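INTERNAL AUDIT FORM
Audit reference: QA-55
Scope: verify that the stored structure record matches its stored sequence.
Auditor: D.O.
Record contents follow.
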Amino acid sequence: MSGQYNMFGHPIQDLDTPILLVDLDKLERNIETMRRVIISEAGIDWRPHTKGIKIPALAHKLLQAGACGVTCAKLSEAEVMVAAGIRDILIANQVVGASKIRRLVNLIHHADVIVAVDCEEHLTALNDAALEASSVLKVVIEVNMGINRAGVAPGKPVVSLAKQIVAYKGLKFAGIMGWEGHTARIRNPDEKKKAIEEAVNQFTASSEICVAAGIPVKIVSCGGTGTYWITSKMQGVTEVQAGGGIFCDLNYRKNFGVMHEYALTILTTVISRPTPSRIICDAGWKSMSEYLARPEPLDLGEIKKLKLGSEHTSIELSTKSSVPRVGDKVEFVPGWSDTTIFLHDHLYGVRSGRLEVIWPIWGRGKTM
């Protein structure tokens, strides 16, 4: 449905389901935790990634908390943020193809946009488009920090590409970016810290080599929710991209070791009680993703078995119980917020159990 805008002030028990909720008090505490660690304690910039947030109103809340700008995964996400008045955006991805590049350079007239590159083919196409638009496009070099996705190898390959960038009149070299994502799932704290330090030190050394070669480096950007409390303290890093931690979820908590509060939940309704130990809710994997971690219901006691269908979730309790009853509400903590947010059209902000705000998820479906 288009949004339950006639329900402001009502308790969540009155809302139609399934819907995506965010507890505003918990959200604000998570934002404050990240702000304190990154900005106050580490003394660097915070450029939160919005690929999982997708809501310009939340991006503005992060800017109000002290973020220097935002990070986007795709050009279309950046366009949504620019349309909502966000003026400092890093597109942490390569933009390829004539149509996309024209869209990219058009954004320069409306916001301070930076894009990632990792080869000369990117440079030629971007430079030509920028010059045609009478603009100069800021670029950062993506460095492979060990995740083995896109990016040039750290060290001399970074300097070599930086030298090529500064030779183009339509481009401005802004710095380097990367993501030490291969370290996020390491469970042992000491091993994780060591792996992060190794990856980040090689990354920041690339910046130092550029400076030694006479090429200024303003931005040294890395760090996600699964690493930010360590990465932000590393010498040479100028900004951290962690964003999803404002919600937290089971993947971040159990796999990444992020001890934030669970701010995001999926509200469902019990539609059947076939047996005293079985509960059927009106939401399945079309409303809450199982990718990386399975959603978990709150306040139901010990669960023997949980299975998600397309439109139903079946819960088997370890002991028989008459509650919850048909019509009662059950909240689930998402397995991963990134793969749950885009399943919904709206995010319902609640405070003290009552609906306070409804935010359209404008970034939903923006994959181009």
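Auditor finding: record pair retrieved intact. The chain has two domains: 12-21+260-360, 24-246.
Action required: none
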